[in-house]
Amino acid sequence: VITPIAKLLTAKQAVAVVSECIEAFGGAGYVEDTGLPALLRDAQVLPIWEGTTNVLALDTVLRGELGAGLPALRARIEQAITSARADERLAPAGQQALAAIEHVFAWLSNNDDPRRLQANARRLAMTMGRALELSLLIEHAAHCAGEAGQVAHLAAVRRFAATPIDLLTDINSEDSARLIE
Questions:
Q1: Cβ of 38: how many Cβ atoms within 10 Å?
Q2: Which distant-in-sequence residues (6+ apart) come within 8 Å of 44 by Cβ?
Q3: Cα separation, 116 vs 145, whole angstroms
Q4: Based on CB atoms within 10 Å of each CB, which residue in 8, 32, 70, 99 is the most buried?
Q5: Residue 12 phi/psi, 5° resolution?
Q6: Rounded distance between C-alpha atoms, residue 173 and residue 176, angstroms
Q7: What is the pTM of this model?
């Protein structure tokens, strides 16, 4: 389950990160001499070469071993969160990651229609991946407790937790299914 999710999220994030780097350099970032445009072109190919976002999402929810993989993913998220229980500053983010993966379980238990699953595959896979990413950031921050850079690790957790983790918003799934017909 993690392989297509990792490919999906890292490919999408690479494009966004390199684009932000170019923007940070201003007009100089657009000039070929900096090497940044080549990085952007290379990053742009990732969501295509590794499998498009939709294909990887469908691999996750339709062709993968979701029945075994999703409980294993939840266990890994819980393990990461448990490692951080000593630091109450990480608790809200841990609850957010756990709530997102629990929402995936609840959604799947109430939506067994293959059309609906296909229509929401992207949001399901991204929610699973973002919950895992957040939990791994939490685990890393807990591991770095007492180190000089701990404040930065906590800031990274808070910053990532401020972005949408659970992408399974309540939208009309029938509309989504109609859009793919």
A1: 11
A2: 15
A3: 43
A4: 8
A5: -65, -40
A6: 5
A7: 0.87
Please state the three-class secondary structure of the chain as a single string: CHHHHHHHHHHHHHHHHHHHHHHHCCHHHHCHHHCHHHHHHHHHHHHHHCCCHHHHHHHHHHHCCHHHHHHHHHHHHHHHHHCCCCCCCCHHHHHHHHHHHHHHHHHHHHCCCHHHHHHCHHHHHHHHHHHHHHHHHHHHHHHCCCCCCHHHHHHHHHHHHCCCCCCCCCCCHHHHHHHHC
pLDDT in tens, 13-63: 999 999 998 999 888 887 888 888 899 989 988 888 877 888 999 999 887
Tokens of 23: 């923007």
Q: Cβ distance 165 to 101 under 8 Å? A: no
- Are 125 and 7 in contact by the 8 Å Cβ rule? The answer is no
Spatial contact of 131 and 101, defined as CB atoms under 8 Å apart:
yes
Tokens 């059309």: give the residue: 115
At 160, list the tokens.
């990532």
**Exposed, middle or buried, 106 (CB in 10 Å: 0-12/13-18/19+)?**
exposed
